Amino acid sequence: MNFKLKNDTFLRALLRQPTEYTPLWMMRQAGRYLPEYRETRKRAGSFLGLCKNPDYATEVTLQPLERFPLDAAILFSDILTVPDAMGLGLYFSEGEGPKFERPLNDAAAIKALRVPDIGKDLKYVTDAVTQIRKALNGSVPLIGFSGSPFTLSCYMVEGGGSDDYAKVKTLMYNEPKLMHHILEVTTQAVIAYLNAQIEAGAQAVMIFDSWGGVLSHAAFHEFSLAYTHRIVDGLIKEKDGVKIPSIVFTKGGGLWLESIANTGCDAVGLDWTIDIGIARQRIGSKVALQGNMDPAVLFASPDAIRKEVDQILGSYGYGSGHVFNLGHGISQHSDPEHAAVLVAAVHELSRKYH
Ligand code: CP3
Q1: Which domains does the chain have, with CATH numbers?
Q2: Whole-prediction pTM value?
Q3: Which of 89, 113, 300, 329 gives 20 to 30 Å between its CA and that of 242?
Q4: What is the 31 CA–ligand 1 centroid distance (Å)?
Q5: What's the rounded Cα separation, in Å, for the pair 150 and 269?
């Protein structure tokens, strides 16, 4: 199944090849800000009901593309499917975000951790990838994704979201060997998981290191980046003669751009705290950049949105190598009409830079 894409602007930008305009997609583009998503979720019964049923996952993946001329689709799933497959028991309680029934709260649980059987326990994800690729019918590329081992470990040890990461940091400082064991097993799982997504049809992959930015300089390199690096090394780089680019996104990673670019990834995702022009000066000869508008800009007026888009495009400047995105996921309280303004503004205002 190697048909030609109608719109491969996103893949070309990731490989820093010439494009006619700056492509874009939005993190969490399929989600609660869309009324049609909320309607499908109601039918599915729950968020996990959406993720675990390839028909529903396909339906919601396509929803934002039906509304906006986005340049990429992203698999509808969650980073926490991997620890769920490792037996931790993922569930979502209303208003409280993700939780685990069996978090890693002692050495015995950590030592018992095993790489899941991806072909069996995560088959619903690879089935969704195959089905989404068929439904996209060559229109735009499909992005596969995973959490970074450190970010996954945060949830696995804390048992859910956290404000201070006290449990996972205590483990990391008191029992670094146990922490490394979790990271090691998770790294093996993530490599197998991303490669299974690529085999099933993902045309680019993204690693979300959402919480790497809460670490000290030394801890980030030892407990987060070293494992991300191993994942990038272990990825399938080319399928059927076509490159499969990888994107590494570390929220709060602005201080470590050079180290992140040195993992061998094709692109680095930026949150909104760094000027993208400065990021380009630092690492733009090595990797493409993805980002980096503050998602809160979408709460502002269409004029303000266009102004911010123009500023970011101008700061990046002339030439390829930029995939426009938000610096983190779109808020559930965003107005879809404002997302439409963003998409149109990026496509229109970026042409002069190419
Ligand atoms: O971008 C996309 O459209 C693809 C789908 C996607 C989801 N989660 C769907 C989702 C992706 C790429 C993710 C990644 C993810 N999940 C991350 C990394 C990215 C980031 O945001 O930093 C993290 C940390 C998670 C874990 C997770 N899943 C949390 C913290 C939550 C609760 C968030 C909230 O706003 O309440 C989820 C749930 C989740 N994942 C939703 C969606 C659409 C909302 C679920 C719902 O419908 O209630």
Answers
A1: 9-353 (3.20.20.210)
A2: 0.97
A3: 329
A4: 8
A5: 17
